[in-house]
Design brief:
This protein is of the alpha+beta class. The chain contains eight helices and 15 strands. Strand 6 and strand 7 form a beta hairpin.
């Protein structure tokens, strides 16, 4: 399955580059005022699904654009273009993300950042690679030395419980912040040490399934903002592991402040 996945995600990435070469003529629709989908998203997802069905007809599929289909204990989780806004603006930070889950557990994942020429892959218990070379998360252990990335999917969805208070508290205590626009790519760049951490709210399973296994197999850590796993359907904190507790301490303080104003349950889905 790994070789199948690597070949598939390479070809899917190449397809995005073909569409990228003619951005000015792409058809673009709006899911909401700020959330867009292009003909490239749909075409790449269809390409991936067709390839999977031709090889594994009885597997389930969960795609961002097409939703869920029934199948056996295996399920492919697909984000054809993670970072569509970056894609349509001609920026390099978008990715193709494909994960394979068995009974709800991710056992294989790959992320392709086509413009930058990076293909990440991980298999449960067998480590993570970048272009075939093993990777490990960084060992930086002080926030002042670290680069963190984030995003604002929560604001696109107009949720009151959003990333702004977390951003304002973490920004003064880290060296740099980045916002590239693709959660899957961000997770992989934490995995190989180009970033030391990433956090965001209101992400979906297809945004993070493949990137998460890459990071975990590279020695990183992923929880919700409190260091537990209870709210990972809404909060994702991913780090090299060495700074995890320090970021959790900051974020718990923010959550307590917000909760004192209005219960978190009234903000989240």
């Amino acid at each position: 399955m790994k070789e199948f996945l690597l070949d598939l995600i390479k070809r899917a990435g190449d397809l995005t580059l073909e569409y990228r070469a003619r951005l000015e003529s792409l058809s673009i629709d709006h899911k909401s005022d700020k959330d867009i989908v292009t003909e490239a998203d749909r075409a790449v997802e269809d390409f991936i699904i067709d390839a999977i069905r031709s090889r594994f007809a009885d597997h389930a599929i969960f795609g961002e654009e097409t939703g869920k289909t029934a199948g056996n204990e295996f399920c492919w989780v697909i984000d054809p273009i993670d970072g569509t806004s970056s894609f349509v603006h001609g920026q390099p930070y978008y990715s193709v993300s494909i994960a394979l889950q068995q009974n709800g557990t991710t056992i294989l994942g790959a992320v392709n950042v086509p413009v930058l020429g990076d293909i990440f892959c991980a298999e449960k218990g067998k480590g993570a690679t970048r272009n075939g070379i093993p990777v490990q998360a960084s060992t930086r252990d002080r926030l002042v030395n670290c680069h963190l990335a984030t995003g604002f999917a929560c604001l696109r969805s107009n949720f009151g419980y959003n990333n702004l208070p977390f951003l304002s508290e973490i920004a003064p205590v880290v060296r740099e912040l980045r916002m590239y626009g693709s959660a899957a790519a961000d997770l992989c760049y934490v995995a190989c040490g180009l970033l030391d951490g990433f956090w965001e709210l209101n992400l979906k399973p297809y945004d993070v399934a493949a990137g998460s296994i890459v990071l975990e197999e590279a020695g990183g850590k992923i929880t919700d903002f409190t260091g537990s796993f209870e709210r990972m359907d809404y909060e994702i904190l991913a780090t090299n592991g060495f700074i995890h507790d320090s970021v959790v301490d900051v974020f718990i303080g923010v959550r307590n402040t917000i909760n004192g104003t209005m219960p978190l349950s009234e903000f989240a889905e």
